[in-house]
Amino acid sequence: MRNHVWRPLYLIIAVIALILLVRTLVVPEDFGSHESGYMYGWHRKGNEAEWQQVKVKYQTSAYCKDCHREMYDSIGKSPHGIIPCEDCHGPGAGHLDNPAKLPIDRSRQLCLRCHAQLPSPSSGRSAIRGIDPAGHNPEAECSLCHNPHNPTLEELP
Ligand code: HEC
Ligand code: HEC
Ligand code: HEC
Ligand code: HEC
Questions:
Q1: Long-range CB contact pairs, 47-53, < 8 A, 24+
Q2: Residue 136 C-alpha to ligand 3 middle, in angstroms?
Q3: What pLDDT is attached to residue 120?
Q4: Which of 59, 102, 151, 155 has the lowest tally of Cβ within 10 angstroms?
Q5: Does 110 contact ligand 3 (Cβ within 6 A)?
Q6: Nearest 5°: CA angle at 48, between 42 and 51?
Q7: How far apart are CA 67 and CA 63, in angstroms?
Q8: What is the rounded average pLDDT for all residues in the chain?
């Protein structure tokens, strides 16, 4: 056969050989399909233990209910009922070791994340009532006037 056929073929063989060589160097030894089978089972066996070590930070609102029952019930009936406690208060893990150490965020930023008026319509986010942060009582924290656990406007003083 003529050279112009062989030369690219050598190149292809060289590339395949290189891939196989690099593969033996970089793929971890415990990588394989293991007991879960060839279809979806490809993973590093050691990664299973690594995930078991991961500490769960968020506990869900049902967990807060046991001790903060009144708060749980009142916010449940308010327009903020769909927001999980930890969305505003941060992860509850470690709270039981020292309940005082769940710092409360009273910043305007906490609320503006959802309530800063968007200039143009977007996904569901723009359906939430918006205010202009610079014009809406900029000197005070929101919770001075609005109860974060029941922000119903009719109940404003
Ligand atoms: C086993 C009981 C228990 C559970 C569960 C619990 N808390 Fe508490 N929490 C307390 C106690 C006790 C205090 C301190 C006394 C108080 O302020 O009522 C406290 C205080 C707080 C405070 C005020 C901290 C401060 O600086 O004044 C916040 C905010 C709070 N908890 C939020 C939560 C959230 C959110 C959850 C769910 C992720 C939760 N708690 C789950 C017992 C609990
Ligand atoms: C929209 C944000 C938001 C959500 C959702 C929310 N909180 Fe709060 N929470 C606040 C803010 C802000 C304060 C501080 C209010 C203040 O003192 O000005 C606070 C204060 C608290 C306090 C301490 C003050 C008090 O009144 O005893 C506790 C305890 C608490 N929240 C528990 C909860 C629990 C439990 C849930 C879920 C059932 C929850 N919060 C949901 C924003 C929120
Ligand atoms: C000095 C008191 C005060 C402060 C501080 C304040 N508000 Fe208000 N807010 C009001 C009053 C009163 C109304 C109802 C009348 C109106 O729309 O201005 C209102 C209305 C709203 C509304 C409903 C707007 C509408 O179109 O229906 C939202 C949302 C709101 N505030 C969010 C916030 C947020 C978020 C903050 C903090 C960044 C904040 N407010 C700070 C007094 C306050
Ligand atoms: C995770 C998003 C989120 C955060 C954070 C949040 N809100 Fe809301 N808020 C909502 C939703 C959703 C509603 C209900 C729909 C509406 O009224 O636009 C609402 C409603 C309101 C209303 C109108 C109540 C009514 O009568 O309709 C006020 C006022 C308000 N929030 C104030 C606050 C304040 C103050 C904070 C901070 C402490 C805050 N929100 C944080 C999502 C949020």
A1: none
A2: 6
A3: 85
A4: 155
A5: no
A6: 125
A7: 8
A8: 92
Length of the chain as a residue count: 157
Tokens 């001075």 belong to which residue?
A: 144
97, two tokens: 């070791």
> For the segment 82-137, what is each residue's pLDDT rounded down to a tens digit?
999 999 999 998 888 888 878 899 999 999 999 999 888 888 888 999 999 999 99
Give the number of other CB atoms < 10 A from CB of residue 75. 23
Distance 132 CA to ligand 1 centre (A): 32
**Distance in angstroms (rounded) separating the CA atoms of residues 31 and 44:** 4
CB 120 within 8 A of CB 96: no
Between the CA of 118 and the centroid of ligand 4 the distance, in Å, is: 14
Residues 6+ apart with CB under 8 A from 12: none
Of ligand 1's atoms, which has the minimum distance to the CA of residue 88? 35
